[in-house]
Amino acid sequence: MRGTILRLARYGATRAIFLFLAVIVGVYVTVMIANMGGALDKMRIAQIEEEIAVSVGLNPANKHMPPDQLKALVDAMVQNQIHVLGLDQPFFPKRSFQYLSNAMTLQLGWAEHMVSDAGSRTVRLILLERLPYTLVLFGTANLLLFFLTLFIALFLSRRYGSFLDKATIALAPSSSAPGWFYGLFLILIFAAVLKLLPWGGLVDAPVPATTMGYGLSVAKHMLLPVIAVVTSTFFANIYAWRTFFLIYSSEDYVELAKAKGLSSQEVDMRYVLRPTLPPIITNFLLVLITMWMGQIVLETVFQWPGVGRVFYQAIQFNDTPVLIGVIVIFGYLLAVTVFALDFVYAVADPRVRIGASGRR
């Protein structure tokens, strides 16, 4: 027992270290890309010089100041601002590693251009403000998509070669288009032509006064984007899971269970679903961590105020702290999920042994 615990602890520590190193590398690459390898500093300095020159020039107190003194004042203010922002330090390695250290310790700091609806520049508040909207939309869409496709695929695996099975195979290529592509058509049909649903946004204007009215308004605005997300991968997911279940349905132990007279539901639950639990759990956990990221284009198309739209705006504004904040949190979630999956596999599948030094 003691040896098992030590082996488990050693394996867990090794996995945690390597996953943490992977997150560090990913975040540092993001820091370098977001700052264009340090080239973004020159753009920031030029912007600072322009803003200060305009501000000093428009100040009535400086109207009669000689040009030389005016230039000296501008230069002094520019140098002071550059020093305050740390732009006088070399980006590599000093400032790039400082960015990395702050990101890994979740000291996300303040946004350079973006503000929250409450007027705060704190990156944490900007993300927390938009996160609930993304979770509501993509949590509903992804969980609906996951369970629908899973059980429909299981149903079709028992009816191999039927009309519904062939129709699903024929419609699978329709899932090659992204969700925002279907969203444009849904807006055109249901908002522009039929005028049954809103074009986008979160809630009606003016905002309903009651909680029930507010909830119904949000649900109405969610309908089109949820349909777009589900439609974009619906048939492809069914096709993939159906093929996966067919492989396990052809095993000898499944045929034996059928010969014993077990019902289709008992065979599916005990002899088809249970051996496939590891990949199902993997897919489910990845759905949970990716749904908080949202979808950049789809949220923009539907004007949904989620994290995906914040990420898009941060790219437009070159707002490095916001970009890094989104990436580092996603990296941590992904690493924790991968770490937890090893132990979940061992619980779900008795054939899996953790840290058994090559043994099954």
Helix segment tally: 14
Report the sheet with the most strands, covering strand number, pairing sense and barrel closure: none
Distance between the termini: 18 Å
Beta fraction = under 5%
Question: Which structural class should the secondary elements be placed in?
Answer: mainly alpha
The number of distinct β-strands equals 0
Which word captures the global form?
Answer: flat
Which CATH first-tier class of the largest domain would you pick? Answer: Mainly Alpha
Description:
This protein is an all-alpha fold and 360 residues long. Helix content is 73%, strand content 0%. It has 14 helices and no strands. The protein is flat, with a radius of gyration of 27 Å. The two termini are 18 Å apart. 23% of the residues are buried.
Short description:
The chain is mostly helical.
How do the strands and helices of this protein lay out in sequence?
Layout: H1 2-34, H2 39-58, H3 67-85, H4 91-104, H5 123-157, H6 163-171, H7 179-193, H8 211-249, H9 252-259, H10 264-273, H11 277-290, H12 296-301, H13 307-317, H14 320-348
Helix pairs in contact: 1-4, 1-14, 2-3, 5-8, 5-14, 7-8, 9-10, 11-14, 13-14
